[in-house]
Write the structure tokens for this entry.
Amino acid sequence: MSIDQKILPKIQMVDLKTQYEKIKTEVDAAIQNVIENTAFINGPEVKSFQAELEQYLGVKHVIPCANGTDALQIAMMALDLKPGDEVITADFTYVATAEVIALLGLKPVLVDVYPNTFDINIEAVEKAITNKTKAIVPVHLFGQCANMEALMNLAHKHQLFVIEDTAQAIGAEYVFSNGTKQKAGTIGTVGCTSFFPSKNLGCYGDGGAIYTNDEALAAKIKMIANHGQSVQYVHDSIGVNSRLDSIQAAILRIKLRHLDEYAAARNKAADFYDHAFAGNPKIKTPERVKNSTHVFHQYTLQLKDVNRTSLREFLSENGIPAMIYYPIPLHLQKAYSDPRYKEGDFPVTESLCASVISLPMHTELSEETLQYIADKVLEFINR
């Protein structure tokens, strides 16, 4: 049955307004409470959110900070990585993952990803390890965990730190071969996340957090995030100023209570897309692995023999936004050009950058909207 766009609400990549309207009373009261108490920095809301997120994740220490990029930087600073140390990460990711490595004078070592899951290629990681390698940064891209069991075995073998970039996968759960489960970000040496508004757990500004089960490392992270001081005006190390403000923490406390519900809504939307596109030879839907749940931060298709630019324009003309995450591999970015890498060195990443497209994915997608989106994608592809 054809659905008329005119009867649908405006389609968003992420519909934060409708999501807010459903929790408006709780959120407004929480914000007002912070304003009335005037505890804007490191107030009780920050401490409560920290404790509640620790409980949700099953991790001993959560250290809130200003944003996800800061989280990665502070984690690397706390691990005492030195200029020239090599840090391995995926070529197919947002720039922030590699940005902080370069910013600290460390050496980004890029590796390819798996073609069906978009996650870091374990075999490529092993080949990239040298005597200068100190850490690996797996990215749980688009909402599904990388193969953490294999990665941790590799890290233990070579005595390497593992810094999980879980900005897109908060709430995802990894299942080990023995049946035990852990939340994304709690498996490695340290985990880092972002609370950017469009994230699955997003605030109404900037925010981030770092997780660890290591007591000494947690103390060091807290110190670095607070100007390198553990006692006021006593600075034991070089630090930064990176805080989650109380209003954002109050909002995140409300949204954390709904996080699993949000993940379920995203999975329902993904199931609809999967069914709609099943069997189409020009569309590859996201693979879901057995050893990880998926929280679908993005729903990303791979196109075959389809003009992606024209498809995106067609969707836009029909009121459907679509995004390309990510159009240029890190190794072909001017800022990260390196004589070690050239075009063709990372064939999977380069293929993905040329073929992926992400459809609207959020908690407020109705079946009618999903049907309309799927119909328009298929209308273009099958014509």
User: Anything to note?
Assistant: The chain has two domains: 21-256, 259-381.
